[in-house]
């Protein structure tokens, strides 16, 4: 069974950086797309970034382009989200998700989810 475990969240000042990790297990991920979503209190879960495991194609929400970078380490079955120039509005729980083959910016299209990690950006 596919399991996703996030880590790396925390409290950071505006303008700072964090790197989130998502360790994947229980499957063969070569044909998966991996994504990060975030969810702030009272809001819907929103797409942040995605990467196709095969080929490494990346996709970003407009709000994070130029600030966040998604990457993967094939040997470790781990996906990363490097977050720079963080803003208070980036504060949310960040979730790692996986789906077969192609990416999607709709949370409903993802079958597998991690438990989430809190990111708090102070002003």
Explain the layout of strands and helices.
Elements: E1 3-7, E2 10-13, E3 18-25, E4 32-39, E5 46-52, E6 58-60, E7 68-73, E8 78-83, E9 92-100, E10 112-113, E11 117-122
Parallel strand pairs: 2-11
Antiparallel strand pairs: 1-3, 3-8, 4-5, 4-9, 5-6, 7-8, 9-10, 9-11
List keywords for this structure.
0% helix; mainly beta; four-stranded antiparallel beta sheet; 123 residues; single chain; seven-stranded mixed beta sheet
What can you see in these coordinates?
This protein is mostly beta strands. It contains no helices and eleven strands. Strands 2, 4, 5, 6, 9, 10 and 11 form a seven-stranded mixed sheet that branches. Strand 4 and strand 5 form a beta hairpin.
Global shape = globular
Q: Which range does the strand content fall in? A: over 45%
Sheet with most strands: 7 strands, mixed
**End-to-end distance, in Å?**
40 Å
pLDDT averaged residue by residue: 95
What is the tally of beta strands?
Answer: 11
Radius of gyration: 13 Å
Run of helices and strands = EEEEEEEEEEE
Number of helices: 0
Parts with pLDDT < 50 across at least 5 consecutive residues: none
Q: Helical residue percent? A: under 10%
The assigned structural class equals: mainly beta
């Amino acid at each position: 069974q596919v399991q996703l475990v996030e880590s790396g969240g925390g409290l950071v000042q505006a303008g700072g950086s964090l790197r989130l990790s998502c360790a994947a297990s229980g499957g063969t991920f070569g044909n998966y797309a991996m994504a990060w979503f975030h969810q702030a209190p009272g809001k819907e879960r929103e797409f942040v970034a995605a990467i196709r495991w095969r080929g490494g194609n990346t996709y970003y929400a407009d709000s994070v382009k130029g600030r966040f970078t998604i990457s993967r380490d094939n040997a470790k079955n781990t996906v990363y989200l490097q977050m720079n120039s963080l803003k208070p509005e980036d504060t949310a729980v960040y979730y790692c998700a996986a789906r077969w083959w192609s990416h999607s910016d709709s949370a409903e299209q993802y079958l597998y989810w991690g438990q989430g990690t809190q990111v708090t950006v102070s002003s």
